[in-house]
Amino acid sequence: MAGRRARSGRGWDAAPSRTGDTPSRPRRGRRDRADQPGPATSAGGDPNYRDNPDAGDDTDTGSTPPRSEAELAREICLRQLAVRPRTRAELAGALARRGVSPEVSAEVLDRYDEVGIIDDAAFARAWVSSRHAGRGLARRALANELRQRGVDGEVASAALGELDEDTEEETARALVQRKLRSARGEPDAVFRRMVGMLARKGYPPGLAIRAVKDALAAQSAEAAEFADQVDVDALADAEGEFER
């Protein structure tokens, strides 16, 4: 109608906005969007598809060459050594479990021996020192642990020789004193528990019985009376027969 302002349209014939001379882009309808391929839609129109160039591609590009058996063996050894020091026997066992051949295993371990990465003698000395100081283990228990880890008998004996009898006795007495602070029960029951504790840590029967007897004698009058009746030699012989 004449004189009436025409209603501005929203299509292609809409008047340009005042902020610029470029007409606004028309909004696409649902049909238009469906016709446009996008990275989130597969050629078959699956809405759960994600545009991953490697998805479903099982082709080996060959960019990473396969590792040799020796490289695998070295990697296994280094991972084992990253946790704690290992003996040669422990590393050989780990390699065997992973299917490394004995020839390659020996070659890698020989090289590690040469450069000092593995050293059973140093391992044994460190093991004896650490386990005696930290757990109070005596030589017999330590010898058993070293044997389980494949340390040669002569190498183990040399390391255990650094732990003398006096040090072993001092440690036994300190263990009993510490345990007695929280011990409860009649003196005979406490005596058996303390001797059993030292025996499990590898102390000889005579040393264990003597250390517990002396500690009880200094604890109380009742415990001292019981300790006076303990025959160390007789009990040690009986314990020795039982162990055999």
Automatic annotation (TrEMBL):
Span of domain RecX first three-helical: 73-111
Top-rank taxon, per record: Bacteria
Chief location of this protein within or outside the cell: cytoplasm
Keywords, sorted A to Z: Cytoplasm
A Pfam family of this chain: RecX_HTH2
Coiled-coil region(s): none
Residue ranges annotated for the RecX second three-helical domain, each copy included: 119-160
Keyword DNA-binding found: no
Keyword Hydrolase: no
Region of interest: Disordered: 1-70
InterPro entries: RecX_HTH_1st, RecX_HTH_2nd, RecX_HTH_3rd, Regulatory_RecX, WH-like_DNA-bd_sf
Subcellular location field: Cytoplasm
All copies of domain RecX third three-helical, residue ranges: 168-211
The family this protein is said to belong to: Belongs to the RecX family.
HAMAP family in the record: RecX (MF_01114)
PANTHER family assigned: REGULATORY PROTEIN RECX FAMILY PROTEIN
Protein function: Modulates RecA activity.
Listed name of the protein: Regulatory protein RecX
Organism lineage: Bacteria, Bacillati, Actinomycetota, Actinomycetes, Micromonosporales
